[in-house]
Amino acid sequence: MPRSCSSSTSFFNSGGGGRSMTPSRSHSDSLYCGPHGYGGRSPVAFGSEELISEPVDLPRNGDSISVTIRFRPLSEREFQRGDEISWYADGDKIVRNEYNPATAYAFDRVFGPHTFSQEVYDVAAKPVVKAAMEGVNGTVFAYGVTSSGKTHTMHGDQNSPGIIPLAIKDVFGIIQDTPGREFLLRVSYIEIYNEVINDLLDPTSQNLRVREDAQGTYVEGIKEEVVLSPGHALSFIAAGEEHRHVGSNNFNLLSSRSHTIFTLMIESSAHGDEYDGVIFSQLNLIDLAGSESSKTETTGLRRKEGSYINKSLLTLGTVIGKLSEGKASHVPYRDSKLTRLLQSSLSGHGHVSLICTVTPASSSMEETHNTLKFASRAKRVEIHASRNKVWYNLGREISGLKMELDQLKKGMIVGVNHEEILSLRQKLEEGQVKMQSRLEEEEEAKAALMSRIQRLTKLILVSTKNTIPGLISDVPGHQRSHSVGDDDKLDVLREDALHLENENQKDSLSSASVVPSDASHEFKHRRSSSKWNEELSPVSSTITESTQAGEIISASKLLAGAMTQDQMDLLVEQVKMLAGEIAFSTSTLKRLVEQSVNDPDSSKIQTVMRLMTQCNEKSFELEIKTADNRVLQEQLQTKCSQNKELQEKVKILEKQLASFSGDKTSLASEHAVSEEYVDELKKKVQSQEIENEKLKIEQVQLSEENSGLRVQNQKLAEEASYAKELASAAAVELKNLAGRRGRFSGRANEISGMHSDELDSWNLDPEDLKMELLARKQREASLETALAEKEFIEEEYRKKAEEAKKREAALENDLANMWVLVAKLKKEGGYIPEVSTDERHSDGIDPRNQKLMRLIKILSKRRDKFQMHQDCLMKVRGAPGCSVEEAVGETESV
Ligand SMILES: Nc1ncnc2c1ncn2[C@@H]1O[C@H](COP(=O)(O)OP(=O)(O)OP(=O)(O)O)[C@@H](O)[C@H]1O
């Protein structure tokens, strides 16, 4: 019978683990099958159907992935809806089903719902972090359905920091506890959202590409930040979280919609003579997005995100499944960005710790079961974690090889036969050639590394627990010279610090900060001339307890001009450190004073006195640092004011830019207007062109008519000459007639004197003759009038023709002008120079437009005139009912 929700109230509220909360777990120990011979990594059938993975303790020498399960308490929502407990932690290694107790899984560790993140960290992440600091790559990731507690586990909150902040704190703690080595730490932070990789430390850097080299897969163009303290590193995470994709679903108000990978890159080397090369390792801390089931109510974008999340997690499951089979089959790493990036981790080149987060709620029983199956498969994946390659100093390696060579030569001379000597020599020569090429390669790598080291040297972190004999004497009169070199004091301090640390879990993260070697110029000089370059004295490579901060400050003063925000942060960290030390000392002092009251032992009193002196010194140091801090703050203020000025300048520039862009927009609008105007003009020009065409045609017609007229003129002239001839003939005849008349009148007189008989004999009728004469005279007169008229018309026509020619020429001229104007407009390409509004007429028409319109009018008038002229000519040419006078009159009026 499953437990009811009411019975699980204590489960939700109590701080105990799941084991003690579940009555049905009493038989669980007997169900654990580990001791009964589950050899190797193969799972063993458990109960009727389910499997239990072999539980393995960490560290396992990197044989398999460390798999832990973390239950979260029932959420308020689950509690409200009456959810029951369906899965529970049976002991600290087994997860069991409440409804079917035979269904159980075993893991490296199972954390109950009220386990603190610190405990989860200690078990599931600390060994991986420690190994990473020693040069073995490590990956810790949280896997689970939405709202199961992945982000809570990886990031946590202020009250309960998660794996990532705890790992950062631990890393700086390890540096502090490793006086013999110096470290360089860099961080990067990316997210995979909808199968797109975005840089969370540089929001402008999106959709980054995955690349592959000899070391494995990596993200191209990713931003890496050197970190100097835990606070510094956490500030990058906080900044990155701002850009992470988060949304809400019905299970989680702040559901992660992307997988995030926070990477810590660690480079370390031993000091001075102990130098053994540089070791590089990488620690990946991954917060996966949660898989979503059909119960997750999502729509639109959320659904799309969910499908991407599910797909990549499915691929992760497939990859894990393939790897767990242990066969050399194809592993589909490339099917998702997540598996692609995890390729080198999952394929066994480092420690991997998988923390599966689950809810005990009965409503999510199936989802939790799936997570457990996934975890169970992951447990079977084999890994072979090993320390990363060390970039050695080749000089030492070569001299060793030379020595070996010499020894070999000696051996050859002593007791080896000739053939063996020859083959050995050949091998040696081959070896030498190989060595030479390797040497060259390594030299190149070394040169590249050295230049990088030079750049990064200033950011190397060293433990403040080191000692530098002689460093104090190098700085004469330094007030802190009193406070160093006293081992007793240091021991007491350490003891007390440890004691206090054990006592006080609230130890702030900042107390773990260490000192960047370049914080002091002098110090950097010493270190850079010793650690990374063996040729120089190793004496200067040692460091002293607690003097560093002071050295840093004094040297920082020298470098005040070049003081950066990082150095400010560093100073703040150092001040915090000193404050912490003072707090330790004060509390120790108090404790000792209390003890000395009960036990007035003189040595303790002496210790108290010593501590008091030390405390005073520390206070003094603190004051100095505070003063220095003030100086730096002043500098910062001046920088800020300079910054303000610059910002103002930028504002002014922005305004100018804005006004400029305003001008641009008004210009653009005017340009648009002028473009419209140009369009209109173009249309007009086009119509004008058409009209011009028409005019041309008319012109051609006119010229044709002209030539016709000329022909007519010629005909008329011919007619006129014919008329003239006629007239002259008539005149001759008239003369003859006149002559005849004279003779006739004489004859008439004669005739009158003649008898009618005589006239009758001639057969002439005098009346007829008279009539004929009269008619001839009339005809002669009319012919003369017609001739005069013809001549007059001819003259008129000639004039008209000349006028027409002139007009034609004028028209041609106008046409040419028009063409010039049109060409000009075309050439201007639509750009119409600015016309101010007062230049425009009240009717809003541009003067140039008006000019054009006038021209068009003139042209159309001319065309009309031509038309009329043509009409007249038609009439003149003999249109019926039109007299010459009318035609001439009309032509004149035209
Ligand atoms: N071990 C725990 N103890 C107390 N509260 C927890 C624990 N684990 C998770 N929670 C709470 O449960 C809620 C959901 O947790 P969280 O956001 O970490 O889930 P998630 O797995 O990251 O979800 P998603 O995949 O949707 O991002 C949060 O309010 C968180 O504080």
TrEMBL record:
Region (Disordered): 1-28, 501-529
Gene Ontology CC annotation, any one: microtubule
Residues where ATP binds: 144-151
Pfam families in the record: Kinesin
Keywords attached to this entry: ATP-binding, Coiled coil, Microtubule, Motor protein, Nucleotide-binding
Listed GO biological process terms: microtubule-based movement
UniProt keyword Coiled coil, yes or no: yes
GO molecular function: ATP binding; microtubule binding; microtubule motor activity
Keyword Nucleotide-binding (UniProt): yes
Residue runs in coiled coils: 425-459, 629-705, 776-814
Residues in Kinesin motor domain copies: 64-381
Record field: compositional bias (Low complexity): 1-13
Family affiliation: Belongs to the TRAFAC class myosin-kinesin ATPase superfamily. Kinesin family. KIN-7 subfamily.
Name of the protein: Kinesin-like protein
Organism: Hevea brasiliensis
Lineage: Eukaryota, Viridiplantae, Streptophyta, Embryophyta, Tracheophyta
